[in-house]
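dumping the sequnces here before i forget
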Amino acid sequence: MSDDVILKVNDLHTYFFTESGQIRALSGVDFTLQRGEVLGIVGESGCGKSVTAQCIMNMVPNPGRIMGGSINYYRRANGQVEEIDIINQHPRGRVMRSLRGNDIAMIFQEPMTSLDPVYTVGSQLLEAITLHQDVTKVEAREVAIDALAKVHLPEPHRIIDSYPHQLSGGQRQRVMIAIALSCNPSLLIADEPTTALDVTTQAQILDLMQELQEATGMSIIFITHDLGVVAEMCDSVAVMYLGKVVEKTDVDSAFYDPKHPYTRALLRSIPRMDEQKNSRLAVIKGNVPDPSVVPLGCPFHPRCPEYMPGICNQVVPSMIELENDRAVRCLLYDKNQVQTPQPVAA
Ligand SMILES: Nc1ncnc2c1ncn2[C@@H]1O[C@H](COP(=O)(O)OP(=O)(O)O)[C@@H](O)[C@H]1O
Ligand code: SF4
Ligand SMILES: [Mg+2]
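..and the predicted 3d for all of it:
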């Protein structure tokens, strides 16, 4: 992995101002992504994974607003590195259009909603290709067929003239990947790209993404609620809980030496091969609280098996830097807070 940074997200706050109140979707997200790194962002539903992606694309929907923090993208061009301050760009301005067109691409969970049902796969792919490459119509069709072959779609000459509904979910996701990669992005954000697929197709799409990452060296932010997918795909992981990153670590440490009680709880909830298909997984006690009423102190304290009364319900943990570039947001590791850590069951 190269040393240099492609994206830096710092203390990002994003709120939704709804009729029923203010939802603090992100309340201090921090992470740094290196060039060529595959970072998994993981956490239960509602913890702010998709909103983080929307912020990076500067596409937060109404009634959402980025309230603070920064997102910097480092574009490499002609041997120079240009720093782009994403949240201070106009969402539809020249800089953001150029970033979305040339640097950062995104794929989503359900390709049917991203592909237009009334146009053929070919015309949607051709549109993306002619936007980025200076080619004639005839050449563009060849480039498109080639792009479909690269994502291992069978009979690309036939598929190019198909409509999205004529393809399977896995084939549609391959088309989306081909479209996303047509701009040769340096950063791909994949938001639950395999969640809607069956297990076999999911494994095939993960293999394909891994192959394309190795071939291109692009960085990937891989958003998922599934730590099994992280193990398969990622170099590092950012675990999110209620709009904050609570643990950032390399992927091996996340599995073999998780520090945050929430990461440990997530690990216990991964399905195992030796368990019966429909047996119940260990679930994390309680539900994710509503982000409009975040608990005092550590937001995880009502669910935490290592809760320390009088500390965890009063002090908001800050990110503690550990060795080997690891960081954890938990008072168990805060020397100023914990003289004699005595975890007590909540
Ligand atoms: N368009 C929206 N309007 C209001 N609230 C939203 C909107 N999008 C997301 N949220 C809220 O922001 C929080 C984070 O959502 P999200 O990032 O989608 O979670 P996930 O981790 O499942 O991707 C949730 O509480 C969600 O309800
Ligand atoms: S700060 Fe306390 S409640 Fe929060 S995760 Fe750490 S031990 Fe659990
Ligand atoms: Mg999501």
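The pocket of magnesium ion (ligand 3) is lined by residues 49-50, 191-192 (CB under 6 Å).
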